[in-house]
Amino acid sequence: MSNTKLRAAVLIVSETAAKDPSTDECGSILQKVFESDGGDQWDVAATEIVPDNALDIQRTITQWTDSGECMNLIVTSGGTGFAVKDITPEINSHGMLAASMAVTPCGFQAVSLNCPYNLYSLLVVAIMSRPVAGTRNKSIIVTLPGSPKGARENLQSVLKLLPHACQQAAGADSRALHAGGIKKLEKEAGVSSGAAVPIYEKNGHQHNRHHHHGHGHGHGHGHGHGHGHGHGGHSSPIAHADSDFHPRSNDPNAGPSRRHRTSPYPMLSVNEALKLIAENTPAPVPVKVPVDANLIGSVVAEDVRAAESVPTFRASIVDGYAIIVSEDVPSTKGVFPVPFFSHAQAGDIPELHPGQVARITTGAPLPPGATSVVMVEDTVLTSKIEKGDEEKEIEILTDAIRPGENVRETGSDVKAGDVILKRGEGITAVGGEFGLLASTGTREVYVFKRPVVGVLSTGDEIVQYDRPGELRIGEVRDTNRPTLLTLVRESGYEAVDLGVASDKPGVLEETLRAAMRKVDVIVTSGGVSMGELDLLKPTIERSLGGTIHFGRVAMKPGKPTTYATIPFKNNAGDRETRTIFSLPGNPASAVVTFHLFVLPSLQQASGISPVGLPRVKVVLDQDLHLDLYRAEYHRALVVMKRDGLLYANSTGAQRSSMIGSFKGANALLCLPAGKETLAKGNKVDALMMGKLVSALDSQL
Ligand code: AMP
Ligand code: MG
After folding, report:
1. Annotated region Disordered: where (predicted)?
2. 284: Cβ below 6 Å to ligand 1?
3. pTM of this prediction?
4. pLDDT at 187 over 70
5. In terms of CB atoms within 10 Å, which of 12, 330, 373, 522 comes out highest?
6. Within a 13 Å sphere around the CA of 331, how many CA atoms are in the beta-carbon half?
7. CA proximity to 118, closest of 255, 219, 192
């Protein structure tokens, strides 16, 4: 061991202490533990207090781990923003331990996954007590509870082990250290693990935590069963509680020979998958927005009442003459003087007296006193004024005019205060809803926020679709991203281009983390097949602490479609959920699964009901072979023929890589799995993606 002391940093994570450092007790208590229990080996070189959010924590820790003179040890106290899942003193299951290490921000290496030689001693550190440990670069990071007592006891319980671990992390000859075995480490530290520690498996297979297989991982220590309690003068609880973290995904560090050879995700039916999506889609959130063209596609979040009446004045429905009809007027038939006129424009209009008429245009305000309007067709001109073209007198040819005839009374279309749109109603481009808002002078409405959707392609082979020049062998033009971006926008949602992420675990993780700050829903394509470069599932599950609700669906195309949610703390510190749809890489599969799974979720989140593509019955216009095992979503053109029925024709070859199978398609035929061929004339369900068209021969 070198003569210089080990450098330790203390990070207090607390909303309160960040505002008022005098409220913090942990900092000084931990400092004292280093002094009194640290065997004169420690120099507490830095202490920081940050609020409980991942960004601040991340920034501070990386300063300490990534600078030239990095810390040997970082202890954190408190903090729920530290991991995506809470890291609290109550974390007491080993599965959770591994999970927490895997989800710490800024790419902390989970020691159990990446550092075989550090692995065992560090896991002992972590497992002998409740703290959660990880490494980044050459620093060891140990998280402690936020309570002063818990922080002190936990640090005391592990402090003796930490110099060894720090040396290993800093690059000492870990083989030599390792040679002494865990017993040596334990002896030196005065503790004993007692035995079997259910270490998180390197190859990612799911193991019963209490049934540990010793197959050669390069650290095949004797793992027995049972747990040591209360050694070395302190009794750190060793938990038996089951973890809620059971990653099924491959461990990306395990290498190709360790990856799963069959998918560990259960194969769900499309309906089961849709049910999970419906259950996990966040509830719609009302937002106040201006009434403008962006409103089209939104759903109203609360009843909207008319601010004004339509019309706001008594208006004529026709071109003609305003007249007074009442019991005092014996007949409307006869010749009347025309002293003035009322045009459809703003301004004062003189009063009409009995025995007079006023020329009036459609939509113009009735003169005060007028009761009715007689259509110009029911009159003839009898005389003009001497100079010019103005009418002097007209004759009304009918006696059948009633009070109120051809008049739109004030508020007769819409009364001020009436509900014009109900909560849950959609604002379409057809015209009615927007027209009502516009005509009543409604300037702002509450609608449900429509999710912002980020679209990401993945794969080292993917190049920009418009890159000039020929492709090199292996390169593939990015078909999915531009296609999905247009699809998202056409479906009425704001789309954010997230670019292409390469098949490197860190890159994907960072890209997704950044994306979560910008968008509500992330749609990725590629990286969900069974290859060793397929990183989506492990990244979501292991690095981001997400929950994969399904990872396989019994459908053709689209089998590896993956749906996950990731807990996320926004900059204001509120807990939110981000949704990830990881669609298959093959372009036709990506587009089918977007329509089938992504769209209903976007619709539900924006308050649309019912969700999903409209389903209609269509008659097959040709024979179609069925897939033996999987329900197929077959691209087709549905047309209406002269008999009024809908007929479907396949767009041709349906291979999942062939995006061309979508050309000219407006529907997905829902074909069941089966042995037989469905003959022409059979009826099947079709999901309408595009507009229904009339067959040419059905045009009148
Ligand atoms: P993966 O699931 O990543 O193995 O991808 C399956 C197939 O889809 C591979 O042939 C990929 O090259 C292809 N692929 C993945 N992403 C895209 C994309 N954005 N555009 C075109 N092809 C893609
Ligand atoms: Mg790929």
Report:
1. 205-264
2. no
3. 0.67
4. no
5. 373
6. 8
7. 219
